[in-house]
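Q: what sequence does this backbone want?
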């Protein structure tokens, strides 16, 4: 940064020496030319009469002092261009070009990372919605299993004589469901877990025990 400030001061000081505006009053260069008038001379045996007119050329006329100022300004301009070329060939200029290139590469990588981040956010949102949908389906399935449990319990109770016989039959039914679940999990290499039917039965058994204990007190 210090070198950059020094170069900037050097550039400013040098450019201040060069005139930024130069007023040069100039006049058109005129020349005298003979042009025909379209009239015939009485004494020239039919010769056409000519007249002299001033017509501009493609040149301009300036003072010697202004000419010298123009020459000086042109030389200063050439020196200024050369000075700029010298500055651009310095290590600082080359370093600036290098940093500009690296900045472009970093900016490009940053844009790529932002794009990937946005893609991950979109994927996350999609998974989140999918997870919500799955939770809703699981909740529906749990409700259905609970209804099946209650319906099965009522069905067997109506067709079994005595409470003890009913409990034995129903427990055997729950054990049968448990065995089928274990066989399915083993066949498909799934993590062993209690099925929802068994979990519902365990909750009902705990409720009955709590009621029985409350009644005995």
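A:
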């Amino acid at each position: 940064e210090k070198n950059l400030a020094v170069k900037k001061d050097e550039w400013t000081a040098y450019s201040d020496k060069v005139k930024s505006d130069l007023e040069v009053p100039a006049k058109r260069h005129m020349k005298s030319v003979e042009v025909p008038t379209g009239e015939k001379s009485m004494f020239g045996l039919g010769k056409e009469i000519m007249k002299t007119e001033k017509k501009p050329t493609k040149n301009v006329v300036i003072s010697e002092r202004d000419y010298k100022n123009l020459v000086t300004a042109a030389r200063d301009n050439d020196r200024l261009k050369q000075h700029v070329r010298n500055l651009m060939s310095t290590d600082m200029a080359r370093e600036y070009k290098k940093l500009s290139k690296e900045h472009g590469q970093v900016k490009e990588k940053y844009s790529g990372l932002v794009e990937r981040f946005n893609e991950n956010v979109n994927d996350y949102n999609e998974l989140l919605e999918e997870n919500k949908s799955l939770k809703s389906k699981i909740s529906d399935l749990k409700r259905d299993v609970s209804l099946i449990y209650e319906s099965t319990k009522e069905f067997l109770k109506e067709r079994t004589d005595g409470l003890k016989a009913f409990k034995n039959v129903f427990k055997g039914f729950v054990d049968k469901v448990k065995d089928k679940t274990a066989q399915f999990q083993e066949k498909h290499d799934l993590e062993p877990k209690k099925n929802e039917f068994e979990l519902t039965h365990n909750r009902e058994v705990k409720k009955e025990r709590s009621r029985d204990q409350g009644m005995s007190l």
